[in-house]
Automatic annotation (TrEMBL):
Family annotation (CDD domains): galactose_mutarotase_like
SUPFAM superfamilies (UniProt xref): Galactose mutarotase-like
Identification of the protein by name: Galactose mutarotase
Keywords attached to this entry: Carbohydrate metabolism, Isomerase
Alphabetized Pfam families for the sequence: Aldose_epim
Lineage: Bacteria, Pseudomonadati, Pseudomonadota, Alphaproteobacteria, Rhodobacterales
Gene3D superfamilies: 2.70.98.10
Protein family (similarity comment): Belongs to the aldose epimerase family.
Length: 328
C-alpha cells in the first residue's frame, strides 16, 4: 500500500508505504526511511512511537523517531574525525559534538522508492561528496521486509567512491504496552561491557557492566531520572547476526532484536518528548515514552583507536542486517 503523507516545509512530497505478512503490518515513510508505525494482530496500539503529522518529523520534536540516522549515527567529539591521515571537519549540532551526521543528516532526506511489494520495500538515497563534511559520493539502499508470524527485517547497504565513515542506525522508540511511559518494560541486553560517557555523552573507555548498567539478566524500567544513553558492546562477532536484546512489556508482549552490528545504544528517552505534536494514541508523548534501541557501531569510533573501525574503503560495501521479532 502506498499513499501521500504530505509535503515537507521545503516542498518535497513524502509517501507512506505499508507492508504486511502474518500478524505484522509496518508503515515506512520516504522521509528519513522512517519506521512510522508497527501494528501487531490483536494488539490495539502501535508498538513504536510515531505520529500522523508530517510536521512532527520535519523539524519537529520527532525528527529522529524511527529514522535511519547517519551517515555516522551517534556522536563524534568536537565534530572532528581522523580519516586516512587527514582530519574531517564536520558540522556540530549538539554543542561542540556532531550528532547523527549533523543538522542535515539522513533523517532529513527524501528516499527514492526502488521497489514495493506486499511484504517488502526497497528505498535508495545518494549522498554527495562533502555533505556534512563526510567524503565520497555515497549510494545507500535499505530493504525493509516482514515475515510471518511477526518479524521485521532491515538490510542496509552502502558504497562510496572515496574512503569514508559509515555507521547507520535505525532510531525507533519502542513501547510494547501502549502506556504513556516505558515503566514496567524489562530489557535484557547481550553485552558484558559498555561505554561510560562524559558530560558531553562522549565515551571515555570500555568497562564491564555493573550495577544499573548490567542488563544481562534483565532490568525493569521506571520512568524517573534519566539513566540510559549508552552504547553496549554486544557479545559476538562483527558481521554475524546475533542476539542483541529482548524487550518485554508488562502485557507480556516481547520484542527480540538481532543484529550484525557490534553495538547497541540504549536510550530511555528521559530527555525527549513530542512537545505539541500528537503521537499514536491521540496524545503527545511525555519524557520516558519509549525506549530507543539503536544497533550500530560504537560512538566516536574514529577518535578511539581501540574501538571497532567504522571506516569504509572506496568501492567496498557497508552492510547491516537487523531483525525485530515479536511474540506474546
Amino acid at each position: 500500500m502506498r499513499h501521500p503523507f504530505g509535503k515537507t516545509k521545503s516542498g518535497h512530497d513524502v509517501e507512506a508505504l505499508s507492508i504486511h505478512a502474518g500478524d505484522i503490518t509496518v508503515t515506512i515513510l520516504t522521509l528519513g526511511a522512517i519506521v512510522q508505525d508497527v501494528h501487531l494482530k490483536g494488539v490495539p496500539h502501535s508498538v513504536t512511537l510515531g505520529s500522523e503529522d508530517l510536521a512532527a518529523y520535519d523539524g519537529g520534536e520527532l525528527t529522529y523517531f524511527g529514522a535511519l540516522v547517519g551517515p555516522v549515527a551517534n556522536r563524534i567529539a568536537n565534530a572532528r574525525a581522523p580519516l586516512g591521515g587527514d582530519v574531517l571537519s564536520l558540522v556540530a549540532n549538539e554543542g561542540t559534538t556532531c550528532l547523527h551526521g549533523g543538522p542535515d543528516g539522513m533523517e532529513t532526506e527524501i528516499w527514492t522508492v526502488e521497489s514495493l511489494s506486499e511484504s517488502a520495500l526497497t528505498l535508495t538515497l545518494d549522498l554527495p561528496d562533502g555533505k556534512g563534511g563526510f567524503p565520497g559520493n555515497r549510494q545507500l539502499r535499505v530493504r525493509y521486509s516482514v515475515d510471518a508470524p511477526a518479524h521485521l527485517r532491515m538490510n542496509v547497504e552502502a558504497t562510496s567512491n572515496k574512503d569514508t565513515l559509515l555507521n547507520i542506525a535505525n532510531h525507533s522508540y519502542w513501547n510494547l504496552d501502549g502506556r504513556s511511559t516505558n515503566t514496567g518494560h524489562t530489557l535484557r541486553v547481550n553485552a558484558d561491557r559498555y561505554l561510560p560517557v562524559d558530560a558531553a555523552s562522549i565515551p571515555t573507555g570500555v568497562v564491564d557492566v555493573s550495577g544499573v548498567y548490567d542488563l544481562r539478566e534483565g532490568r525493569e524500567f521506571t520512568a524517573g531520572t534519566p539513566v540510559y544513553d549508552h552504547n553496549y558492546c554486544l557479545n559476538g562477532a562483527q558481521g554475524t547476526l546475533k542476539h542483541a536484546c529482548t524487550l518485554t512489556g508488562k502485557s507480556g508482549l516481547s520484542m527480540r532484536m538481532d543484529t550484525t552490528e557490534v553495538g547497541l545504544q540504549v536510550f530511555d528517552a528521559g530527555h525527549v518528548s513530542s512537545g505539541k505534536f500528537i503521537g499514536h494514541g491521540g496524545h503527545p508523548y511525555p519524557a520516558f515514552a519509549g525506549i530507543a534501541l539503536e544497533a550500530q557501531g560504537w560512538p566516536d569510533a574514529p577518535n578511539h583507536s581501540d574501538f571497532p573501525s567504522i571506516e569504509v574503503s572506496a568501492g567496498k560495501t557497508y552492510r547491516q542486517e537487523t531483525v525485530w521479532s515479536f511474540s506474546h
